[in-house]
Write a structure and sequence with these properties.
By secondary structure, the chain is α+β, with helices and mostly antiparallel strands. About 35% of the residues lie in helices and about 20% in strands.
């Protein structure tokens, strides 16, 4: 085992709206931090994309800023990343050939609808643990191959690379020497078989994706390559941790044992709990890989929500609020009751547990007395309602009591939201005081990969205090609110 004293680990957290870099010491303390914002484009209704080159430059910028404070070169690098998003690039030059199609984008919906023939969705679910839905990567990959001039022929010839964000960053960091992704990211594509732990040839044929364009699949921890001088980072740093950001948050909370459950409050949200074996959900949850090593694969049940933080951003844009989060919180705090107003944020459809890509958003229960404060309250509460729906499904299917909910992400700092969440799930919510949970997860895996830490038990011992919110709401009040939410949902889900 490496002596952790003095060792530092660089971790990159590449998200939808920002990229972050942190420097973590052997005691799990964040010693330096940098972040930069990223823009998102909406070229057509339900299309969402980003500049792939800008994503890469944001990583370089943040890493350089953090490394400028490091007394010596880090012993390892870890990456957590936005999942399901897809980049298509040229193998010889490393240049992206199209914008990154990000996870929220629904441009693959037409293809997915044509594939929903008798038995197909069920077969896909058995193999991948996922719903046949355009959120996942496969339909995005197919769209890029079909709509980028010459891409299909060049991909078949091995000239192009297709991959998730971790594979794109790994390729750039290694100077084009490594085209690989980790199992957590692979398990979000609709192309990865949870049982064989490899790309599934039948699914590749179904979606028309050439295997030779895809990354090799690696464990989440363990060195898969080293930084190259052409990346502009110091050469030779082992890249020893790769993980999707939601999975990274589970690791960052040290949620290694069954019964742990976490909710990440970001642009969208993820609720995840580890399970010993791949449970195929009957309640609209995804079965996925929590994290993996060369010796062990840990699975998870997960529910994904398309719009949580994005709902607050939308409301701010609608009303012209420069700081939407602060304004929504202020208005909602002064408005103790939405007075029957519910906002169902199905802006690009509904994710788990409903999986309805055609659903669209709705505000339900407006009266002449409704105003901006009621909408602000309804927007904030919509986040907690969606998390509750998944929490309830996870608890039922995991078959074990979930006695605490770990919360992270920007909105987990909102005390009003966290209290309302605790009232709905009827168990304590532990809101992380760290803003770096996903990045910490990547750092932990990288540290395990090079021997800074030798076991997950050591990582559990590194955990520090969180803010605790206990349920306070009366049962009849909670039941009334949930009944109103279900009524609003039913209106949105009407065919």
């Amino acid at each position: 085992m490496m002596n952790p004293a003095g060792a530092s680990i660089l971790a990159i957290d590449q998200g939808t709206t920002n990229t972050k870099a942190i420097l973590v010491d052997g005691a799990g303390q964040v010693r330096a931090r940098a972040s930069t914002a990223l823009s998102v484009s909406y070229p057509r209704p339900s299309w969402v994309e980003q500049d792939a080159a800008a994503i890469w430059q944001s990583v370089v910028q943040c890493a350089a800023e953090v490394l400028s404070t490091a007394p010596e070169t880090p012993v390892a690098l870890g990456i957590s990343n936005q999942r399901e998003s897809v980049v298509l690039w040229e193998r010889a030059t490393g240049e992206a050939l199209a914008p990154c199609v990000i996870w929220q984008c629904q441009r693959g919906n037409a293809l997915v609808e044509t594939l929903k023939q008798p038995g197909v969705a069920e077969d896909v679910h058995r193999r991948t643990g996922l719903e046949l839905d355009p959120m996942f990567s496969a339909s995005k990959m197919r769209w890029l191959l079909d709509n980028t001039p010459g891409a299909r022929q060049r991909a078949a010839a091995g000239e192009l690379c297709l991959g998730t964000i971790d594979s794109w960053l790994l390729f750039k960091l290694t100077g084009g020497r490594v085209h690989a992704c980790d199992m957590t990211n692979a398990s979000r594509t609709l192309l990865f078989n949870l049982h064989t732990l490899d790309w599934d040839d039948d699914l590749l044929a179904l979606f028309g994706i050439p295997r030779q364009a895809l990354p090799a699949v690696q464990p989440s921890t363990g060195a898969v390559g080293h930084t190259a001088a052409e990346s502009t980072l110091p050469a030779g740093i082992p890249i020893a941790g790769l993980i999707g950001d939601s999975h990274g948050a589970l690791v960052g909370h040290a949620g290694f044992a069954p019964g742990a459950v976490k909710a990440t409050y970001g642009t969208g949200s993820s609720v995840m709990t580890p399970v010993a074996t791949p449970i195929l959900s009957q309640r609209g949850l995804s079965t996925t890989i929590a994290w993996s090593s060369a010796e062990q694969v840990t699975y998870a049940l997960e529910g994904n929500i398309y719009a949580t933080g994005a709902t607050i951003g939308w409301l701010g844009k609608l009303f012209g609020w420069p700081d939407a989060a602060a304004t929504v919180t202020e208005l909602a705090t002064d408005c103790p009751d939405s007075e029957g107003v519910y906002l169902v944020p199905a802006f690009v459809g509904l994710g788990a547990p409903w999986w309805n890509a055609n659903a669209r958003g709705m505000i339900h229960g407006l009266t002449l007395g409704s105003g901006a404060p009621h909408l602000a309250r309804a927007a904030l509460e919509s986040i907690a309602y969606q998390i509750y729906d998944i929490f309830a499904a996870v608890q039922e299917e995991a078959g074990i009591p979930l006695t605490v909910l770990h919360a992270d992400g920007g909105a987990s700092a909102n005390a009003l939201l966290m209290q309302f969440q605790a009232d709905l799930v009827q168990c304590p919510v532990l809101a992380s005081t760290s803003t770096d949970v996903s990045a910490l997860g990547a750092a932990y895996l990288a540290g395990l990969g090079v021997g800074v830490w030798s076991s997950t038990e050591e990582l559990i011992a590194l955990q520090r205090g969180d803010s605790r919110f206990a349920p306070q709401m009366m049962a009849d009040r909670r039941d009334t609110l949930l009944s109103g939410w279900r009524t609003a949902l039913a209106r949105v889900l009407l065919p």
